[in-house]
Amino acid sequence: MAYLTELQPVSAEILEHCRGHMLYWHMLADALRIPKLDRIDREHLEKILGDWEAVQVVEARARQGNFGDAEDHKDLRKAVLKLLHEDGEKQARGKRTSPNLEAFVESMTPLFLHFGARLSSAENSALVRGLRIVADAMGVDGEPRNELRRLIALDRKLTLQHRQRAAEVWAEAIRQAFGPGVNRD
């Protein structure tokens, strides 16, 4: 089981919210001229996901997120980083993923996982193929597979840290339960 929520299937409540607002999101996206999937992309996604309704939900969520607008996502990231900086959080230096690609992969992956795609960053996995189809149609720059690989690596790191911390807590509880006669090594 994944530690990050971005790598877990979407909950039933969120899926119902997406289904309930699908038509509204499409109307807004049409008015704002946000790109949509063409017939061929929809057919490819239907082969990957195996369900026409899944394709509709994925497309509605992709259009609602407007992931092709890199400037909007860049402004959002700056605002969030400013708030974190004000709270004393420090961000790691170095190369960063484009904000719209990061947001795209983080929000679309749980939908694909819910509709049956396995969590895999393999070149020909259903998840990577589906993300690429939608990213190309929405105008998202960058390679979704690389961002997915970054998320999976981060998840493994956090899971390992969580397990190590849990082992430390258990060891301390056992030491306290059995007293000073327990070897501390």
Percent of residues in beta strands: under 5%
**CA-to-CA gap between the ends?**
30 Å
Number of helices: 7
Helical content band: 55-70%
Outline the biggest β-sheet: none
Any idea what the radius of gyration is?
20 Å
Unreliable spans: none
Q: Based on DSSP secondary structure assignment, what is the total number of beta strands?
A: 0
SSE ordering: HHHHHHH
| pLDDT averaged over residues | 84
Overall SS class:
mainly alpha
Sum up the overall morphology in one term: globular
Topology readout:
Blueprint: H1 12-31, H2 39-49, H3 52-65, H4 70-86, H5 99-114, H6 126-138, H7 144-178
Helix pairs in contact: 1-3, 2-3, 2-6, 3-5, 4-5, 5-6, 5-7
Description:
The longest helix has 35 residues, at 144-178. The protein has helices spanning 12-31, 39-49, 52-65, 70-86, 99-114, 126-138, 144-178. The protein is globular. The model has no long low-confidence stretch (mean pLDDT 84). With 185 residues, the chain is an all-alpha fold.
Descriptive tags:
globular; 7 helices; mainly alpha
Explain briefly what this protein structure is:
With 185 residues, the chain is mainly alpha-helical.
